[in-house]
# Entry
Amino acid sequence: GVIRRYKTLEQANSSLLQELVQKDDSIDKAQQTLAELTKTKTDEVLGYNSTIASLHSQLEKCYQKTVKNEETAHRMKVHFRDQCQLYGELELAIKNIVEMRCRTGRIKNDSLLNRLSMIQSYLLERESVYTMSKEARTPTPSVP
# Structure
């Protein structure tokens, strides 16, 4: 009885030791797989972080470029508005000069070029009158 019980316990012990060795090998393999998987995933995360950093850098450059473009567009808009205002003021001034100084009646083609042409004619006529009046006031030298 005792010997049989000893042999049964010895077989059970041997079986448990064998199972322990197998489980130990299995745990070692699982730990090795886990270490490899951890390394792979860590490398993957580092790659993603690098990609994110690169994309963030590109985003910053795009943002800076957008800010510069918006500033340029705003300056151009202000400049265009100022130019339009100046053009309107010049056109109004030309029209006023034509109406005040060149009282020749309405012209059929009331274009800007025609108005400028009228002002030019008026100024040339004024210069001619001034020159003639200056010559009339200047005494002519007498011949002995």
User: Anything to note?
Assistant: The mean pLDDT is 88. Residues 38 and 95 are 84 Å apart (CA to CA). The first helix runs from residue 2 to 101. Helices lie at 2-101, 112-137.
